[in-house]
Design brief:
alpha+beta, 4-stranded mixed sheet, 9 helices, 54% helix
C-alpha cells in the first residue's frame, strides 16, 4: 500500500511542489507550498476520520492533498488535470496499485472550482480541505497598499476554524471565520469565494453533511 509518509518524504515530489510554488510566486499568487498541502491533508484526514471512513481511504485522501497542486509546475491553467496526470506517473513508479491511483488522481483532477465535482468521498474531502485554507500567512505580498482581492481576503482572516458538528437531523461541516473588515468586507469575500463555497456545499453533501459558513459570528451560508 502506498503511504502518505512515503509520498511526503519523496525528494522528487518535494522538488515538484517547490518549483510549482515558484511559478505561482512569479504570477503573484498566495502560498501553495508545503504549509498549504499539509493543512489540506490534515483537514481531509480530520473529515474522513470523523466520518469513520477506513484508514486506507484517509491515507489516500492525504496523498491526494499533498499532490493536488503539482500541476502548477506545468501551468496554472488546468492545473488540476495536469497535476492528475503527473500524479498518475509518480504513483505508478512508486508501486501504487490501480485502485489507489484511480482514487487519488480522480480527486486531484476534480479539486479546482473551474472544473471540480465532488465525485467521491476522497475528492469531497480534498475540496473541503483546499477551499477552507484561508489564512493571513498565505499572503506573500508585503505591501498592503498593493493588495489584490486574493491578498485582502486571506490577509483579513484573523482566525479560521473548521469543525464537524452534530445536529438533530445530520452532521454539519462548519467553516467559521473571524475577518478584519479593515482589509476585506464580507462582500469582498463572497466576490472571490462564492464559487468555492458552493463547491464546498456540494462536497459536504457528498459526504452526507450540510455546509455552513459563519463570518464574524453571522451565518451567511
Amino acid at each position: 500500500m502506498i503511504t502518505y509518509e512515503a509520498v511526503r518524504q519523496d525528494q522528487a515530489i518535494r522538488t515538484y511542489i517547490e518549483k510549482a510554488d515558484e511559478s505561482l510566486i512569479a504570477l503573484g499568487y498566495t502560498e501553495h507550498s508545503f504549509a498549504h498541502v499539509t493543512k489540506v491533508a490534515e483537514t481531509a484526514k480530520y473529515i474522513l476520520q470523523t466520518l469513520h471512513y477506513p484508514a486506507h481511504d484517509v491515507e489516500l485522501a492525504m496523498i491526494a492533498a499533498h499532490l493536488h497542486d503539482i500541476g502548477n509546475l506545468i501551468n496554472r491553467v488546468d492545473h488540476a488535470q495536469s497535476g492528475a496526470v503527473m500524479a498518475f506517473r509518480i504513483l505508478d513508479n512508486m508501486g501504487a496499485d490501480a485502485e489507489e491511483i484511480a482514487t487519488i488522481t480522480t480527486a486531484i483532477g476534480n479539486h479546482d472550482e473551474g472544473t471540480a465535482e465532488a465525485v467521491n468521498h476522497v475528492a469531497a474531502a480534498l475540496i473541503l480541505g483546499d477551499k477552507t485554507d484561508v489564512r493571513r500567512s498565505r499572503v506573500r505580498n508585503k505591501d498592503i497598499t498593493n493588495f489584490d482581492i486574493h491578498d485582502r481576503v486571506n490577509y483579513s482572516v484573523r482566525k479560521a476554524d473548521v469543525k464537524i458538528i452534530e445536529e438533530t437531523e445530520r452532521k454539519v461541516f462548519r467553516l467559521k471565520l473571524s475577518i478584519d473588515t479593515r482589509y476585506c468586507s464580507v462582500m469582498d469575500y463572497f466576490e472571490i469565494f462564492l464559487g468555492r463555497m458552493i463547491l464546498c456545499r456540494k462536497a459536504a453533501e457528498r459526504l452526507g453533511m450540510q455546509f455552513r459558513l459563519i463570518i464574524n459570528e453571522q451565518q451567511v451560508l
